[in-house]
DNA sequence: GTATACTAACTTGTATACAAGTATACTTGA
DNA sequence: TCAAGTATACTTGTATACAAGTTAGTATAC
């Protein structure tokens, strides 16, 4: 069931997006938030109706979501595959894998411009905290890791990130929104950890990098767990199956 | 320019494919083979005409190719980005990355069923050599690595493979065809190397794994280089730009 | 009551139509 | 000859139409 009266994805992130991308973003975040339950069968016509568009952009959206493993395109509709904790762990496997790879490459190049860019982003994150802007914080957080990855010029590492990015985005977005409501105080820890990243890259210190990578992972993993529980509690009251 | 009178992609691999996938496969291999030159602008209408279909499946195909970084979708057409040697090196970076990851996981599980499956595939490869079936050999080669990767149950490692697979397929296919024409004798080395893979997994020997991984890489890299030179020489005589 | 066959309402895949925007080439003016 | 403006022929994005196939439900025959 698509709750189109209550959009979860920030409108302002969609300024340059096509109709298909908009739909993909909204359906994606609703799947990840658990609003659309696992096992739900989405049909092109139904989605087209819900979003008041034709099947063409819906089709595009479903293809996108399928490439992200969020739905499986079958003969009669797209079956929703919600993220499990196993999936999230696996996503972070990949993130650690590629960020470690990127770090190894960064070690043998001039990282000064990158460090400067990353510092800027951390400052932005601080401002986002000050103004309690969860969405902006999530955006900067994502941008931070993206900037590191783009720090080396590597087409296929970029490709992996490009595929991971949308899900990460929704995940971080939802998690940050909840965190801003629940426990704002531990954002200092997030900032600290990002600073640790920067230090690791700047000092080209493998151990420090590993440490901050896993730190970050544990941190997010914990939040995700919380998100999961909250979401599931919420949904029990909210979701009325067709 | 699309030479549709001379299809490079094996028809029999397309039995279950949609029109869009067919077009993607054919255009992909023509880009990788250098038949469609880098910088060429492909328009949906033109491709639809060439393949005698409507724009819908062509659109689907172009989206696919864009996700593989083979074309870049711009306002006025899809610009072809041929593979450079750098790209191919980077692809093998990723392959080594994920296959190493997979190996580490395999170490802590029962690999007997996998070993059996891999042995079967190597036998198939031998038969393919005996009957000089380059396409079948390429297919089995690809299947070999795919089987290893599917040996661990990991959604996002699978995702990476799914994204890499089409390009690898074309690359290996072209390279094997040429190799069958030029130097059939060194296929025994390829077989040997695959046997080495199996041994490494079976004995859970990290060093052996690393060795065979890089062996395989060097081997293919070398072939690719040859392919490149041949293809470029060929194209100089063949390609007549509109 | 049960099983089988048929109908009707869905599904996707592909083709076509239409709208909005862009680049190029030609025409017209000086 | 050169410049500027307009017209035309492209491009993509979205909507709609049509065809082929699947599923489910109902009605009918036994």
From TrEMBL, chains A, B:
The keyword Cell division does not apply. It comes from the Bacteria. Residues 17-83 form the HTH gntR-type domain. Pfam families: FCD, GntR. InterPro entries: GntR_C (IPR011711), TF_FadR/GntR_C (IPR008920), Tscrpt_reg_HTH_GntR (IPR000524), WH-like_DNA-bd_sf (IPR036388), WH_DNA-bd_sf (IPR036390). Keywords: DNA-binding, Transcription, Transcription regulation. One of its GO terms (molecular function) is DNA-binding transcription factor activity. This is GntR family transcriptional regulator, gluconate operon transcriptional repressor.
């Amino acid at each position: 069931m698509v709750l189109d009266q209550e959009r979860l994805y920030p409108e302002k992130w969609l300024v340059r997006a096509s109709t298909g991308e908009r739909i993909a973003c909204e359906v994606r975040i609703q799947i990840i938030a658990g609003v659309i339950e696992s096992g739900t069968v989405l049909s092109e016509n139904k989605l087209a109706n819900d979003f008041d568009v034709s099947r063409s952009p819906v089709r595009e959206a479903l293809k996108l979501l399928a490439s992200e493993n969020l739905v499986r395109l079958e003969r009669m509709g797209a079956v929703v595959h919600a993220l499990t904790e196993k999936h999230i762990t696996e996503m972070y496997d990949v993130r650690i894998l590629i960020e470690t790879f990127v770090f190894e490459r960064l070690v043998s190049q001039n990282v000064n411009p990158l460090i400067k860019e990353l510092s800027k982003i951390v400052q932005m994150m601080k401002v986002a905290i000050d103004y309690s802007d969860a969405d902006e914080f999530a955006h900067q957080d994502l941008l931070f890791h993206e900037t590191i990855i783009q720090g080396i010029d590597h087409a296929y590492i970029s490709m992996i990130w490009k595929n991971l990015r949308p899900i990460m985005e929704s995940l971080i977005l939802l998690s940050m929104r909840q965190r801003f409501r629940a426990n704002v105080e531990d954002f200092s820890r997030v900032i600290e950890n990002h600073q640790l990243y920067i230090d690791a890259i700047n000092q080209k210190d493998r151990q420090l990098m590993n440490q901050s990578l896993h730190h970050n992972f544990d941190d997010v993993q914990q939040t995700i767990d919380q998100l999961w529980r909250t979401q599931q509690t919420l949904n029990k009251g909210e979701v009325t199956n067709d």
